[in-house]
Amino acid sequence: MTKQLYRWEGIERPYSTNDVKRLSGSVHIKHTLAQNGASKLWDKLHSLKYVSALGALTGNQAMQQAKVGLDAVYLSGWQVAGDANDSLEMYPDQSLYAVGSVPTIVKRINNTFQRADQIQIMEGNHAVDYFLPIVADAESGFGGVLNTHELVKHLIEVGAAGIHLEDQLASAKKCGHMGGKVLVSTQEMINKLVASRLAADIMDVTTIIIARTDALSGALLQTDSDEKDHRFIITNNRISSDTTIRGTRTEEGFFKTNAGMEQAVSRGLAYAPYCDMLWMETAIPDIGECKEFVQEIQKEYPNKMFAYNCSPSFNWKARLSDTEIRSFKDELGELNVKFQFITLAGFHSLNYSMFELSEKYRDTGMTGFVELQEKEFEAQERGFTAVKHQREVGASYFDQVAQVCTGSTNLSAIKGSTEEGQF
User: Fold this and answer.
1) Angle between helices 345-364 and 59-67 (to 10 degrees)
2) Nearest to 151 by CA among 108, 98, 189, 113
């Protein structure tokens, strides 16, 4: 079996090759970063025990992740909402920001990767693979099937290797660790997964698609239109004039459901043919809970891969021992949980490090900053290069560009600089 055939093993497309050709137009545009990233991520998912990623909200954070050799970058919608959106606001994770915000950060990260790669190649170095695959948060698609389709196309255009989509109602979307989550029907989520795959096929990119369900805790349902959801709807035992049992509804008209593992498994089984990986959002770090979900899915789809959010919303030390925390990722890997990530790593590391530096600067003046600088100097032995911040962002690269254009070194930014003299 060829690799390409294996890539699509178990994936269903309820549309034809002719449909894709008919919708693709006459010009074939190559999306190199997206395709290279998708291929690289697929290979890592099958060659590594699991793929490790941290959430980044800036290009420089992603660059540091590449320097130490992490496997991929996760781009969290939560982090974009909180501190990196095109609306220039600080928002909670409720799809309040402009729909183009996540694509903007994908582009920013890939542009940073390109610059870092240009610098190292200019210096005769090939040590770091800066082009880590980026898995981007497509939220609930910011609307219906067409909104989802266009968002996924936009993410591919800027170089995302993979996307994830969740089964919440876009207009009422909440962070997976908030209350009041409203699920769309199972069929609507399937339709959005199909829209995502069609977008990738039209763009001719083998995008990794992750389907996330919030059904473990999601106790509200937008509509009772899908029979697959009926057994989870809480009924009030009142018989209507058409002799059907009416479900209990909220003031907004949403149906109340029996949230829990059975509802999550039902949705996982329904989504499995239309995605590459499944993700069940959880409230606590519980290997047993994850194992139950995985094993129920694997009864029908034995080769299905899974993703897991090692969330900062969990109080890890309150739930697990140090030994359990240390082995957590390996235990997930044994369950075929192949993509493991800390969603809000960038947010927490950025805020704590700046808080700590500010505190020390307030109390000890320059001593507080010099302590940080000394740690940077020490980290150079481990591959840290940002202590030379002019070089890090490309001053030497653009010196070379200017020299090629003019033949002169008189205007070199690095030559004679403070950095050259002291670092």
Assistant:
1) 100
2) 98
User: Which residue in 333, 343, 299, 413 sits closest to 82, CA to CA?
Assistant: 343
Position 239 scores a pLDDT of 40
Query: What Cα–Cα distance (Å) separates residue 336 from each residue in 256, 267, 269, 291?
Result: 32, 19, 16, 10
Cα separation, 291 vs 298, whole angstroms: 10
- Give the residue among 286, 146, 152, 295 at the shortest CA–CA distance from 211: 152
Give the model's pLDDT for residue 241.
44
Instruction: Tell me the catalytic residues.
Output: 175
3-state secondary structure at position 413 = coil
Locate CATH 3.20.20.60 in the chain: 3-343
* Rounded Cα–Cα distance for residues 225 and 374 (Å): 62
CA distance 325 to 340: 14
User: How many Cβ atoms from other residues are within 10 Å of residue 33's Cβ?
Assistant: 24
Residue type, 78: W
Residues 6+ apart with CB under 8 A from 295: none
Task: Summarize pLDDT for 386-403 with one digit per residue, the tens.
Answer: 999 999 999 999 999 999
- Give mean pLDDT, residues 204-224: 97
Residue 194 banded pLDDT, cuts 50, 70, 90: very high
Which candidate, 163, 186, 164, 184, places its Cα nearest to that of 173?
184
Check if the beta carbon of residue 212 is closer than 8 Å to that of residue 166: yes
Distance CA 266, CA 277 (A): 15
Q: Which residue has the tokens 């050799």?
A: 69
Average pLDDT over the chain, rounded to an integer: 94
Alpha-carbon distance of 91 to 99, in angstroms, equals 13
Residue 334's contacts (CB-CB under 8 Å, 6 or more residues apart) are none
Instruction: Quote the CA–CA distance of 257 and 380 in Å, as a whole number.
Output: 54
CA distance 340 to 287: 13
Q: How is domain 3-343 classified at the CATH fold level?
A: TIM Barrel (3.20.20)
- Asked whether residue 18 carries a pLDDT value surpassing 60, the answer given is yes
Does the structure show a pLDDT above 80 at 75?
yes
* Residues 200, 206, 208: CA angle, nearest 5 degrees: 90
Tell me the sheet residues that pair with 57. Answer: none
What amino acid is encoded at 363 in this protein? Answer: D
Cα gap 29→17, rounded to integer Å: 18
